[in-house]
Amino acid sequence: MHNPVLAKATEHFKERISGNLNEYHVDAWDTTVYFKTVNSFKDESKILQLHQQGKMTEALVESLIVKCRNKDGSKMFKPADKVTLLNEVDPAIIIEVATAINEASENYQMNIEETEKN
Questions:
Q1: Helix axis angle, 91-117 relative to 56-67, nearest 10°?
Q2: How far apart are CA 92 and CA 10, in angstroms?
Q3: How confident is the model at residue 111 (pLDDT cuts 50, 70, 90)?
Q4: Which of 15, 20, 55, 109 satisfies CB 3.0 to 4.6 Å to 50 for a cystine?
Q5: β partners of residue 24
Q6: Comparing 117 with 53, which gets the higher pLDDT?
Q7: Which residue has the higher pLDDT, 29 or 20?
Q8: What are the residue ranges spanned by the domains of the chain?
Q9: CB environment 11-36: b (16+ within 10 A), e (fewer)
Q10: What is the pLDDT of residues 25-48, one digit of tens each?
Q11: What angle do CA 26, 27, 33 make, to 5 degrees?
């Protein structure tokens, strides 16, 4: 049986998630990180779960693993990179990148809500 509401909901999400990649240049890494302003609930739930468990550092690293992309849209980091990110990468830069990505996502969401109100 076809659910028309579910079809509309998934189409809406596909439109939002298929948007252009945003970019953030990380001077310390001499690299540009690309990211989407919208992610699946499955991806976000991994980050939220760690956050709720009080594992803030791991949540930030998971955020990078889930959200950071290369210019072609492929993931920049793999889950296996988590240990290296946690132990061998400057925490200040991890915080900087995660903050930039999260703020851009929040601003995007606020702009969507404002547009929908008008």
A1: 70
A2: 37
A3: low
A4: 55
A5: 33
A6: 53
A7: 29
A8: 39-118
A9: eeeeeeeeeeebebeeeeeeeebbbb
A10: 999 999 999 998 888 888 889 899
A11: 20
**Phi, psi (5° rounding) for residue 3?**
-100, 105
Which CA distances in Å does 12 have to 7, 16, 58, 95? Answer: 9, 6, 31, 31
96-108 burial, b at 16+ Cβ within 10 Å, e below that, comes to ebbebbbebbeeb
Q: What is the SS3 assignment for the chain?
A: CCCHHHHHHHHHHHHHHCCCCEEEEEHHHCEEEEECCCCCHHHHHHHHHHHHCCCHHHHHHHHHHHHCECCCCCECCCHHHHHHHHHHCCHHHHHHHHHHHHHHHHHHHHHHHHHHHC
Q: Report the alpha-carbon distance of residue 90 to residue 85 in Å, rounded.
A: 8
